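For consistency, the fold was encoded as tokens, as this record shows:
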Amino acid sequence: MRIATYNVEWFDALFDDTGRLVSDGSWSARHDVTKAMQTDALGIVFTALDADVVMVIEAPDTSRNRDTVRALESFAAAFGLRTRRAVMGFANDTQQEIALMYDPDLVSAVHDPKGQAPVPGAPKLAGAPRFDGTFRIDLDIDATEDRVVFSKPPLEVALTVRATGQVIRLIGAHLKSKAPHGATNRDAVMRLSIANRRKQLAQAIWLRARVEDHLIAGDPVIVMGDLNDGPGLDEYENLFGRSSVEIILGEGDRVLYDPHASQALLRRIGPQPSTARFYIPQQERFLQALLDYVMMSPDLRSKAQKWRIWHPFDDPVCWRTPELREALLTASDHFPVTLEIGL
């Protein structure tokens, strides 16, 4: 089985309110890319992936007039994809949902959130609350409780393999960016960067607590998505000791595994895998970063066969296939990550 995670930059801008795919000469939300260019590129990428399951990060919006599942299933129909069914979790206000596309002939998938549902005024309970709730934690050891919410609540899916009946817990996540958007001077950049990292680490602790609950219960778990972080990515990491990736991976006999994360942790200087490519106008260059992961619980590791980053320059097949290489660059600022696993 091939499982993929893919952050599609501003996927929502490619659909109208009926969920119909818009493929014309008008501009997409990507710089200097038309909607036709982006939709065609995404069709090429998704077709080449030929995945059984795709966790879509920055999926189309769900709101009063828009519907994530309808849009993704319209997209799948337009390109004849096997992943023709979709499921999403808690909607958010960012126009960037988290959703799962899947092949219904091979698996079934349902949104299956765990933890206590939000109850106004309820006292703090042991364990991790549901992802649409509030996480209470003292982030800076000042004896003052911080209350953290997800702007994009992670998607918890119970995935059932039809051939065997095995149930896998999938958690799709898009953690808060650490970028100091809106800061106008050096001091503001520092304050906002530290505040954003504190919130992101709290989200990582919350997510790891949910993973712990599943591992203690004996559930196979795969955590996947855009964590907007990795070891050594910014200078504020040392203030807090660990990156959010390290927190989610965990330690000891319940540590999750992702080979790209392991490589980055072992070698912080030198060549690193990367899953995203951004243009930095101030520096007139591109920045590459490892932001997207597929982490698995120890009980699944013996079944894992291959991880792959579909990088247009680093992956030999992508590089030698001009149509796919250009499509990957046009479709998004992130590249898909796939896992081949025997289920």
In short: The chain has a mean pLDDT of 90. The chain has one domain: 2-341. The two ends are 7 Å apart (CA to CA). The first helix runs from residue 35 to 49.
